[in-house]
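Standup notes
- HV: blocked on the assembly model, inputs below
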Amino acid sequence: MSDLIRLSAAELGAKLASGEVSSVEATRAHLDRIAAVDGAVHAFLHVNEAALDAASDIDRRRAAGEELGPLAGVPIAIKDVLVTTGMPSTSGSRILEGWIPPYDATPVRKVREAGMVPLGKTNMDEFAMGSSTEHSAYGPTHNPWDLDRIPGGSGGGSAAAVAAFEAPIALGSDTGGSIRQPAHVTGTVGVKPTYGGVSRYGSIALASSLDQVGPVSRTVLDSALLHDVIAGHDPLDSTSISDPWPSMAEAVRRADVSGLRIGVVKELDTDGFQAGVRSRFHEALELLERNGAEIVEVSTPNFEYAVAAYYLIMPAEASSNLAKFDSVRFGLRVTPEGGGTVEQVMAATREAGFGPEVKRRVILGTYALSAGYYDAYYGSAQKVRTLVQRDFDAAFANVDVLATPTAPTTAFRLGEKLDDPLAMYLNDVATIPANLAGVPGISLPAGLAPEDGLPVGIQFLAPAREDARLYNVGGALEALLVDRWGGPLLNQAPDLSTHELKATEEGVV
Amino acid sequence: MSEISAEQVAHLANLARIALTDEEIQHLTTELGQIMQAVEKVSEVATPDVPPTSHPIPLRNVMRDDVVGDTVLTTEQALAGAPEHDDTRFVVSAILGEEQ
């Protein structure tokens, strides 16, 4: 394996800046890695043919003495939920197969302007609906720690790409945990910023009041550097926050938990979580405590209702957002035998173009919004949203950040929960409250569960606009843990080279 | 409240413009009943005194002058991904059926 692909984005950026490595070399090393292992991992839906051209352009600009940012020339993988010029954007759905958008999503524009090199588009559950990537229309992604297991979802492709060293860093999106839960099961880092912190312009919407784009990486500093690139006000997103943001990278570099008050959410520290998930969680807290943090128990009684509220609000918003897939302006068109009216064409197209989970949620959302049920379902869910926010407000009156395990279990086997939607939905029990309240969250590796040797994540949550606190506590904990492990957790991941020839055939686009 | 019939699912599918098969309708009828039973839990705490929240971060509506912006697509760009067009417009099949 080339040493270049083992570098963090920050390390690679420094070598690029010093001229020790060119962006063409770095990009080629990652493209070679993708060619070698992605048949088995299937993190990518599309590999960018223009990557080397973009890399050589950056090399030229650097040679000409242009002032470039810390991530210039660093390759990046992009979740297929973000629209991109020059690359198909499907959001994991058959209904958008082959669609090449006429504009870039704002976070994509920003990473291109920072000189980063898009490697391609990563796999995801269709329209980000899922926790395993098994709902992708193009076949699942496989977890690099164990190819028979799920990489999390919906952003399993981005998480698996960085865990398998196919990309140093990636973009994700998080509606109920789609950045943080994949980070948990793949031993990587993922951050959901404050709602409105990163523009949603060009992010194919699942649930507009919950969606947030964020970084996916192997180190906390890398997520911070990417966060600094993509954050900021965007007039093209009416929910974009106009306040300026402090440097997240600076928060990592100055990480110090002495005097930090960390609240442990009692309701998310129960027997409902796998033993190894809980033991690694508590070890991480003890480590923080020994280094000056104060650990306090907090109660958030309404979190119990968060999953139920989420599975009303999200499908309701999704059923409305997905109405745009009408076979008129983009994507698939299926005409019924013998022709039909525009409505019949629309219905035939959506029947053929949407997978089972999308149909399930669109019908569920249509039901929750229908006359006579609106107050009982959608209206009640919005009230729970208020209660969850109040729980956060009360907790943050006493502590600086909250801590929970990121998800109840380590990576389960592909297929294990596919036929049980309710069991699948419970994967998000610890991540959903942050989306309902708009607050930021991070998941970073806490170790391996002793019972199965699979990665476990720890989640921290901060008040809205206080994303820098996550990078402070995350950066400090990561340094302590890497010191204890004698290197990054991913050093313990199996070598994928033995799988290189075992290319899976399904679904590679 | 969570009793959902196959007729209701068929009606919802029609509203959502998805031509579900009979088999899909049967399957979804069972699943929706189970899911609604689970999510009905929200009514336990959603009492009249709790105000609803539609948006996580308090925001004011954003307005701008009603003039052509600088990020508009050209006609060619707008039509580029369409299943059918005549170079100036999207083309769709008949809006009304024969009986209408």
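- HV (later): unblocked. The domain at 3-303+385-488 of chain A is CATH 3.90.1300.10 (Amidase signature (AS) enzymes). The two ends of chain A are 25 Å apart (CA to CA).
- Next: hand off to the docking folks.
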